[in-house]
Amino acid sequence: AQTVTQSQPEMSVQEAETVTLSCTYDTSENNYYLFWYKQPPSRQMILVIRQEAYKQQNATENRFSVNFQKAAKSFSLKISDSQLGDTAMYFCAFPGSGGSNYKLTFGKGTLLTVNP
Amino acid sequence: NAGVMQNPRHLVRRRGQEARLRCSPMKGHSHVYWYRQLPEEGLKFMVYLQKENIIDESGMPKERFSAEFPKEGPSILRIQQVVRGDSAAYFCASSPRTGEETQYFGPGTRLLVL
Description:
The complex is a heterodimer of chains A (116) and B (114).
Chain A: E1 3-5, E2 10-14, E3 19-21, E4 24-26, E5 33-39, E6 46-52, E7 60-61, E8 64-69, E9 74-79, E10 88-95, E11 104-106, E12 110-115
Parallel strand pairs in A: 2-12
Antiparallel strand pairs in A: 1-4, 3-9, 5-6, 5-10, 7-8, 8-9, 10-11, 10-12
Chain B: E1 5-7, E2 10-13, E3 19-24, E4 31-37, E5 43-50, E6 53-56, E7 65-68, E8 75-79, E9 88-95, E10 104-105, E11 109-113
Parallel strand pairs in B: 2-11
Antiparallel strand pairs in B: 1-3, 3-8, 4-5, 4-9, 5-6, 7-8, 9-10, 9-11
């Protein structure tokens, strides 16, 4: 079974600073995708960034970037220049294996609070 | 291009009533997924549908829960004879194809069973 572990239930950061959220996973697959979603107080699930395992280059979307370490099965999210609007629950997600790769498994989430 | 639409956003039901949750996927998306989020937890997969077909319902409780995605109209998640333990947020996601394609989520329906 796929497992996704987010070891930081809560984190806080000062506005304009940088914060890194960690995620580890377990899989026997070689080619796969990884996702970070955020869930702000509105509770909507919003895609932040995705990484393709076969790509060496870490994905970047504006202030959001990942540190993908395939051998270590680690997929951390770095948020630079944190803004108050980044306050949210952040979930790491990983597809199922084999023919059920549509079945996303989510970590328990990290609650990030950005302080003014 | 409108995103994934879900309605209602909030639904209150008394124990024993039926709950119907609707999901309209993004334009051009023919794959729909339903997830449930219990309080303080991540999302859990329930069911995967394509038009007129249930592909995988392995995450859905065997009793009282059903889902459909008809040829015309939205996907429906139906919960019969609701119990308090069904109180949760139900999210629908869609993708143009299965597999590696990113799933885009709707705003969710918060179901409260009194």
